[in-house]
Amino acid sequence: MAGHTDNTIVIDAPMDVVWDMTNDVASWPQLFSEYAAAEILERDGDSVTFRLTMHPDEGGTVWSWVSKRTVDRPRREVRAHRIETGPFEYMHIHWTYTEVDGGVRMRWVQDFHMLPQAPVDDEAMTAHLNRNTVIQMDRIKGLVEAAARGQVARAS
User: Fold this and answer.
1) pTM of the model as a whole
2) Beta-carbon contacts of residue 49 (< 8 Å; ≥ 6 apart)
3) By CB distance 3.0 to 4.6 Å, which of 18, 42, 78, 124 could disulfide with 95?
């Protein structure tokens, strides 16, 4: 069995602000509360390979992995996958951005499968990701909306 999550949030900000802020991987430690560091390893056209390092978990373990992320700005979508999979057999991520009344709907879909020796199974990881994604999306919404209000204020 595989794990699957599908979460959305509407951010009251212009598309360019939402897109630029959420796709600036180097700034993710400021955007996401869970990341301690983001190291860009390689840029190749619309793709970036990077290492994310999380803050220590409750047990003191620091998780880190390498992912490759490819943006398609005209289609307003991003596809990513883990290169260093850690406890996952695979992890595929698809982000989409849609202009809607009230701003931009940002949708994150994650498809994955945990390795048999992983500390949790697919069901437990799905529950964890669904809980944490809501927290991260709410945080990002607040930061992006604040930045967009600041840009509007500066332009006035």
Assistant:
1) 0.92
2) 40, 41, 42, 43, 66, 67, 68, 69, 83
3) 78
Per-residue pLDDT reduced to its tens digit, 1-53? 799 999 999 999 999 999 999 999 999 999 999 999 999 999 999 999 999 99
**21 in Cβ contact with 28 (< 8 Å):** no
Number of H helices, E strands in the chain: 3, 7
CA dihedral 130→136→138→144, nearest 10 degrees, is -140
Tell me the pLDDT tens digit for each residue of 60-102.
Answer: 989 899 999 999 999 999 999 999 998 999 999 999 999 999 9
Nearest C-alpha neighbor of 102 from the set 13, 8, 7, 5: 13
